[in-house]
Amino acid sequence: MKRRSFLKSSLALSAFSFLPSNLDAFKELKPSLAEPVTPLRPARLVKGDTIAIMGMAGAMRDPKILTGFIQIMEQQGFNVSVGQTVNKTFGYLSGSDEDRANEFNDFVSNPLIKAILFVKGGWGCGRVLDKIDYQGLKKNPKIILGFSDMTSLLNAIYQKTGLITFHGPVGNSSWEKFSLNSFQDMVCHGRDSFQKPELPQLQSFSTWQSGEATGELIGGNLTVFCSLLGTPYWPSCAGKILFLEETHEEPYRIDRMLNSLRLAGVFDEISGVIFGQFNDCNAEKPLESFTLEEVVHHQLKGYSFPVIWGAPIGHVKEKWTLPIGVQVRIKAEELSLKLMHSAVS
Hints:
The chain folds into two domains: 3-36 and 193-339, Glucose Oxidase, domain 1, CATH 3.50.30; 50-187, Rossmann fold (3-Layer(aba) Sandwich), CATH 3.40.50.10740. The radius of gyration is 19 Å and the shape is globular. α9 runs parallel beside α11 (292-300). The longest helix is centred in the first third of the chain and has 13 residues, at 63-75. It has helices spanning 10-16, 23-33, 63-75, 97-109, 134-139, 150-161, 177-187, 222-226, 251-263, 266-269, 292-300; strands at 50-54, 79-82, 113-118, 143-146, 165-167, 193-194, 206-209, 212-221, 241-247, 272-279, 307-309, 322-324, 327-331, 336-339. The two termini are 34 Å apart. The protein is built from eleven helices and 14 strands.
């Protein structure tokens, strides 16, 4: 899925244009936008629980995606409640902003719904962030899981409520054994550690900068994460472990977005970075471009925090389910990530 088909990389700059004209002013602004939050753990999923599936971003064009997704969830022993938004089309969206926000809030208020999952990514979550019932989520915490465009929703929910959210597959993801096991380990069994798996896609999984660091996990898709800059939904980055992934963006676009994070002071605050998979992020004219790795090195020059490159996160078949808001410890040399406590209660 081409992220720029839905969210132009210039959005990162347009968001940045709302920031104060100097870094000191932005640092003064950030406390009012991103007060510290106390993590709130949702209940773990058990067989017999009811999960909701809905459309929160792009419209679903292939009904087989939904059929397959329902089957996978039912095979895990869950009951499934399907929202009306999965069958709605409003331009490129799965229903109007009101349709999607209202359905999400209805699922939040329903005590029988233990988790909300999404049929696909695309673009659309950012349009409803100001319509989410955050107080309702505090009263009725539940598992919220997705990735790509859901990056904005996951981080906004954590920022506004303290509820731990989950960066993991959506309905049109592959849900192969590795991804399914990671999903179950995180939201059903309360897994607390991640090690380098034996996957062909991870030949580049490596230590870029050694060291250990502890902090709460935040992040997701780079483009979407940057779109939160300067908004009330931007999470505090102080002491955090940032994870980022991307797909189908050229190196100069990656450079632009990382530069926005650097100028906003993000790299001055974080404790470490985990880069996931950057799928097909190659230059159209490679002889006239830096490589992806070169632009990342340029933007991180001078920073001493640990950096891991190429983790199984993002727009790839096999992926980790990661909890946003959980305190973790990373050891770059070991390519390991350990949760300081379970993400679910």
